[in-house]
Amino acid sequence: MIPPIARRFVAGESVPVALEHARARNGDGVAVILNLLGEHYDDPAAARADTDAYLALLADIADSGLDACVSVKPSQIGLDVSDELFEEHYREIVARAHELDAFVWCDMEDADTTDATLDAFESIAAEYPWSVGQCIQSNLKRTREDLDRLRDVPGKIRLVKGAYEEPASIAYTEKSRVDRAYREDLRFLFEHRDRGVAVGSHDPAMIALADRLARERGTDYEVQMLMGVRDEAQRDLAAQGVDVAQYAPYGTKWLSYFYRRVRERRQNLAFALRAVVGQ
Predict the structure, then answer these.
(1) Any catalytic annotation for residue 149?
(2) Helix, strand, or coil (residue 33)
(3) Can you tell me the distance from the alpha carbon of 222 to that of 207, in angstroms, rounded to the nearest whole number?
(4) Which residues in the chain belong to E strands, given as ranges?
(5) Could you tell me which of 132, 135, 77 has the C-alpha nearest to residue 102?
(6) Cα dihedral sign for 116, 133, 191, 200?
(7) Is the pLDDT of residue 275 over 50?
(8) Phi, then psi, of 160 in degrees rounded to 5
(9) Which prosthetic group or cofactor does it need (predicted)?
(10) Residue tagged active-site, from 50, 80, 107, 179
(11) CA Rg, the chain, in Å?
């Protein structure tokens, strides 16, 4: 059983429970992005198993009529085996989503995976336009060039600040500098895209900036937040007419999920604790 502190951030261990969580959030006007917990598989069989699980989950979502989609991790569906296996599985999942009029997000992991992830996204989005979206991290110094490269790709972009602790040679490490990069990247997206912008942030200032930019530019956008973090704000934004999606992990690997997040970056533990006490 999932302990209470983890249950706040994980939508159960099984698909039926995760779908019920999505149904409850839909009742609040909030869409849900379901992510099966699992990552860093060096066994092709494990990558294949989770790929099959996502294919089945997409069918379950389509049958349920829920306002929900899925988000996959590159290392979960084959990237730690090979770039080719990752792209093969990624393409298969998006192809199924395209058939079902569903949607697939792809998370971004540490900086070593960025090139392979973006190469696959660009190729797959060209084949299955607007059935796929990609996460981009503003703490990486390369991100502005990546956004420029992807400005006309027919897929959504989820902009986040970045949760991985990267070396200063390739990433901004001071919070104020990351915040500045995020604001600049957000302005770039709203200036150069008329759709498909996802603001992955819990920061009220960034959400307010996105709202202002959307009004100025007429760009469609959505706000994405984690399950268990500012849940009341998610409902309030949805009530105001903002498109809101909650990222909700589920599955049996919740313990390794929390351990890895804390190990990757010390600030993640403080972030989780603040969420628990409602700050």
Answers:
(1) no
(2) strand
(3) 10
(4) 31-36, 68-72, 104-106, 132-137, 156-160, 197-200, 221-226, 244-250
(5) 132
(6) negative
(7) no
(8) -125, 165
(9) FAD
(10) 107
(11) 17
Site of tokens 């600049």: 184
For 7-41, write each residue's pLDDT tens digit: 778 999 999 999 999 999 999 999 999 999 999 99
Q: Which helix (H) or strand (E) holds 261?
A: helix 254-264
d(C-alpha 10, C-alpha 257), whole Å: 10
220, 195 contact by CB (below 8 A): yes
Where is average pLDDT lowest: 94-98, 243-247, 269-273?
269-273
Strand ranges for 8-166 from DSSP E = 31-36, 68-72, 104-106, 132-137, 156-160
CB count in 10 Å sphere of residue 27: 9
Q: Structural domains in the chain?
A: 15-277 (3.20.20.220)
Query: Token pair of 195, please?
Result: 């759709």
220 tagged catalytic: no
Q: Which of 25, 158, 193, 230 is an active site residue?
A: 158
Residue for token pair 């895209």: 193
